[in-house]
């Protein structure tokens, strides 16, 4: 049971890193970016190419995945996304889902449709015993790194001048610009940062979740579940939601394998009935 709990926490942490970029763009920028999984897939394939073709260390691949995905996000935001910030949500959904299909087709053409594998460093491979509990080394690494990223993200958004400028730009764009805030730059950096987090999550998830051209479509619903259950007004909400959903998914597939994949959806329904606006949503309609 403790092993399942540990694996569920690791899975939930990974879901949070993958989805927290969507939390930023959807909750703070009010933009529905369903192509979020495409940036995660880009980070995963950057890791695969660097490790398998050029023999670069896994530890160097993680920051590279973040930077490349952030750069892709910055370029797309400046050339395409910025024109849709004031567009209806349906236009944003159709545009971003179109990018997903283009990314899936392009990846399948250039990289092939087979599952991609990476070889972890020896110190991250295998399992070890901690007080009688089987602990996967890579999952422990995932938990520690994702926890540090979650703390850093919360501090950046709530305690820094940049986070204050971002919230001001979202609440009232005209007043923020009147106060001297460069709103386009704030939005571009925020979008790039969210895309970079997705790329980092994709790099880390290549070993646990698997990686193929359909990655954005397979995990799109998981990202949306984390954001909808956790709410979009804080980072702590999606963090707790990802942990609960990760543990429920792993435990459900182990204890009730016949209906295991549906446990996470059942939990989502119950939580949204109890808290329709998310776990830590602010008051109001």
UniProtKB/TrEMBL annotation:
Keywords: Amino-acid transport, Cell membrane, Membrane, Transmembrane, Transmembrane helix, Transport. The chain crosses the membrane at residues 6-24, 57-81, 93-112, 138-158, 179-200, 220-247, 254-274. Pfam families: BPD_transp_2. Belongs to the binding-protein-dependent transport system permease family. LivHM subfamily. It is a multi-pass membrane protein. PANTHER family: ABC TRANSPORTER ATP-BINDING PROTEIN, BRANCHED-CHAIN AMINO ACID TRANSPORT SYSTEM PERMEASE PROTEIN LIVH. Its main location: membrane. This is Branched-chain amino acid ABC transporter permease. Signal peptide: none annotated. It is found in: Cell membrane. It comes from Neorhizobium turbinariae.
């Amino acid at each position: 049971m403790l092993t399942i709990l540990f694996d569920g926490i690791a899975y939930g942490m990974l879901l949070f890193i993958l989805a927290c970029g969507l939390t930023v763009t959807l909750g703070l920028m009010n933009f529905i970016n369903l192509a979020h999984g495409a940036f995660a897939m880009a980070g995963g394939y950057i890791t695969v190419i660097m490790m398998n073709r050029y023999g670069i260390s896994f530890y160097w691949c993680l920051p590279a995945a973040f930077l490349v995905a952030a750069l892709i996000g910055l370029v797309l935001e400046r050339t395409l996304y910025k024109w849709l910030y004031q567009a209806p949500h349906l236009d944003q959904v159709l545009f971003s889902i179109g990018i997903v299909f283009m990314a899936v087709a392009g990846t399948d053409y250039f990289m092939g449709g087979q599952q991609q594998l990476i070889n972890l460093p020896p110190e991250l491979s295998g399992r070890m015993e901690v007080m009688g509990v089987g602990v996967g080394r890579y999952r422990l690494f995932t938990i520690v790194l994702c926890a540090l990223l979650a703390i850093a993200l919360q501090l950046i958004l709530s305690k820094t001048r940049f986070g204050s400028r971002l919230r001001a730009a979202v609440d009232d764009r005209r007043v923020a610009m009147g106060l001297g805030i460069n709103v386009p730059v704030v939005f571009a950096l925020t979008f790039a940062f969210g895309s970079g987090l997705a790329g980092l999550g994709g790099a880390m998830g290549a070993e646990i979740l698997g990686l193929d051209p359909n990655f954005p479509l397979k995990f799109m619903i998981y990202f949306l579940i984390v954001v909808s259950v956790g709410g979009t007004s804080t980072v702590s909400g999606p963090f707790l939601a990802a942990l609960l959903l990760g543990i429920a998914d792993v435990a459900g597939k182990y204890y009730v394998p016949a209906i295991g994949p549906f446990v996470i959806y059942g939990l989502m329904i119950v939580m949204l009935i109890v808290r329709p606006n998310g776990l830590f949503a602010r008051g109001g309609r």
